[in-house]
Structure formats: C-alpha cells, structure tokens
Amino acid sequence: MHNEIEKVLISEEEIQEKCKEMGAELSKEYEGHFPLAIGVLKGATPFMTDLLKRMETHLEMDFMDVSSYHGGMESSGEVKIVKDLDTKVEGRDVLIIEDIIDSGRTLAYLVDLFKYRKANSIKIVTLLDKPTGRSADIKADTVGFEVPDEFVVGYGLDYQEKYRNLPYVGVLKPEVYGG
Ligand code: PRP
Ligand code: MN
Ligand code: MG
Prior knowledge:
By secondary structure, the chain is α/β, with parallel strands linked by helices. It has one domain (12-150): Rossmann fold, CATH 3.40.50.2020. Helices cover 21% and strands 35% of the residues. The protein contains three helices and nine strands; from the N terminus they run βαβαβββαββββ. It has helices at 12-29, 45-52, 105-116; strands spanning 5-10, 36-41, 60-71, 74-83, 93-101, 121-129, 142-146, 152-153, 169-172. Strand 5 (93-101), helix 3 and strand 6 (121-129) form a beta-alpha-beta unit.
C-alpha cells in the first residue's frame, strides 16, 4: 500500500502533534460542558479517535453518515442521511468532527440540520481544509492543516474505499488512478 503513495503531505508525527494541540484547545473551550462529539462517517473516524483522546472534558460520542448525490460531473448539492444520530441534539453543544472540507456541502447540510434540531451551539473541527474546493458558505472553527487542490488520501480519506488506514495524508501515484 505505501508504495502506491507518491508523496506524504502530512506525516503521522505532524498529525499526532496537531491532535494534541487541538485537543488542548477544545478542552479549554468545553471546560465544564458535556459536548456531543459527532463524527461524520466514514472519513472522520481516525481523526476523531485520536483527537478525542486528547480532550480532557467529559463528552458524548455519536456518528452520522450522509451521502451527497453526484449527477454527472457536478455534485448536485443534495445530501441524504444514511445513518442518523442516536442522540437528541436539542440543547446540546455539538462538535462536528470532519476529516476534510472540500465543497463544504456536507457540513453546510449538517449545520443546518443541527440548527433545525435546536443545538445550543455548533462548532466544526476538521483535520484538513481545501479552500479552493469551496462552493458552500462554510468555515470550520478549528482547522488542522490546509491542503492544496490535489486529491489526498490516508488517515480516513479514501480513493475507492482504500487508503483510509494510512497513518499519514498523502498523494497517490498517477498510475494508481489507472493513468
Ligand atoms: C468526504 C469527506 C467529507 C466530505 C467533504 O466524505 O470525508 O466528509 O467528503 O466533501 P464536501 O466538503 O465537498 O462535502 P465522503 O462523502 O466521500 O464519504 P466518506 O467519508 O465515507 O469517504
Ligand atoms: Mn466523509
Ligand atoms: Mg469518500
């Protein structure tokens, strides 16, 4: 698997160090609160587990799976719930955890949904941000790293469901795409 990677963009050490930093920051922000940490399946799971280990407040974990419809070349922007939360959002301090924000549509949908469900507060933490991809008006409260306009895999991010288990974030060799 590792020999299919052209270059490592963010190393395992850099990611772990960032998780520590972000965890410390979030521990302060949520001190005395009991946030509801929501991981967006599947990509957010490695980051979620490493980040939450660094948080020193009590918290509740839940997961949501959504999918966006892709009609032809462009995503339609429509998002569908594949797996909903088990937890009630009303009155809760919601912390949405993502691996990457690209167009921003996934998060725009989730933020609207949690507002509609009367969350007390909503924060977004993402490991990666690709600002060049943005079409929805969405911004994370906490960003780990900005990534260039390249297709990245690893640490949750997949290409055809593979590479999520890489401990780093990297770029695939072009031949892997069948090029
Ligand atoms: C990817 C990624 C984010 C989303 C970002 O998930 O993990 O959740 O896309 O894209 P956006 O900002 O353009 O909405 P995907 O839908 O591929 O599901 P996955 O996490 O299961 O891979
Ligand atoms: Mn995802
Ligand atoms: Mg994906």
